[in-house]
Amino acid sequence: MAFIADALARVKPSATIAVTQKARDLKAQGRDVISLSVGEPDFDTPDNIKKAGIAAIERGDTKYPPVLGIMPLREAIAAKFKRENGLDYKAAQTVVGTGGKQILYNAFLTTLNKGDEVIIPAPYWVSYPDMVLINGGEPVFVATTMAHSFKLQPEDLERAITPRTKWLVLNSPSNPSGAAYTRDELKALTDVLMRHPQVWVLTDDMYEHLVYGDFVFTTPAQVEPGLMDRTLTMNGVSKAYAMTGWRIGYAAGPAELIKAMDMVQGQQTSGACTIAQWASVEALNGPQDFIPVRRKAFEERRDLVVSMLNQAQHLKCPSPEGAFYVYPSCAGAIGKKGPSGKVIQSDEDFVSELLEAQGVAVVHGSAFGLGPNFRISYATSTAVLEDACRKIQRFTAELR
Prior knowledge:
Helix content is 40%, strand content 12%. It has helices at 15-28, 47-58, 71-85, 99-111, 127-134, 154-160, 183-194, 220-223, 255-266, 274-285, 290-310, 347-358, 382-397, and strands spanning 34-35, 94-97, 117-122, 138-143, 165-171, 200-204, 231-236, 249-252, 325-326, 360-361, 363-364, 374-377. It has a 7-stranded mixed β-sheet, sandwiched between helices. Helix 8 links the parallel strand 6 (200-204) and strand 7. Helix 3 (71-85) runs parallel beside helix 10, helix 4 (99-111) runs parallel beside helix 5 and helix 4 crosses helix 9.
């Protein structure tokens, strides 16, 4: 269509949303479908947080908010970064957006000039490259390996940096792999970045509270204070507080960047929903005791899924440190014939055959920039996960 902007030719729809919609469509046709494609906690928003939102409505806190967020939330964000991450940000250095997506998008919108490069380790969350492309930048993908637990290696980062590199995007724990960087692993990467002062760091810490065993979460600016003046530390309430639909993301960074993001957001959406902001104040300042309980439930689900997938023929599934995803390899299934008689030639073929044959919806790894793998979200009940994994075992056993 002639009047559509040329920039849109560079982007594609979200693969995770597409798979989720396909699963919904099959369900609507009467098919029995288990969808493991959505990155959304199955827990409900805690009651104290809901009540804070209701209280905001009842006292009339429903007017336009400031663009960067209501001050009690920005103060709560600064306090959270100090308390949990040892980062000294002032409330004036924070920004509240309509979900983490808006924070990321506006960071690229305010900083990228045509041809600027953004380093994105693969596998990556599907939205990063398209956000870069639509804002005129060039994503530079750096493949990771299962042998290195899908983590960016310092020598690969060093090789990828050029004079045009503007950002490194670092997501830990990762969507889709669940990989999380230890302090030492982050230090090796920040040592590289300290040699390249033109490169900024955009952290996506959305899954910070979902780490397992004795893993200790750290974030780049905490590991290397020398990066504070070129790091945007992004987080949100979606995952830890089960507030996906409330749509609140936040970040802290250098004042000059926050000022630029304020300007574009003011011409875009203005401030995020006031009611959701007051609920988020309660999320950050209120009781945190439910987090370890839910984290334990996720950890048990992870262990179940990893164990059952490793019992499936032709699959290998590493055990990730965090988030609520596993990223098994289906390399052993490539070249095999599926139940329909079709030869599986890619991870996309694998997930398509799995959906048709057993009604289990997962997302192909090539959508995240690295295959042949697929992503499973285990943010659902143990009973559903057991059923899904049995069906995956049945499917792989039928491959010839």
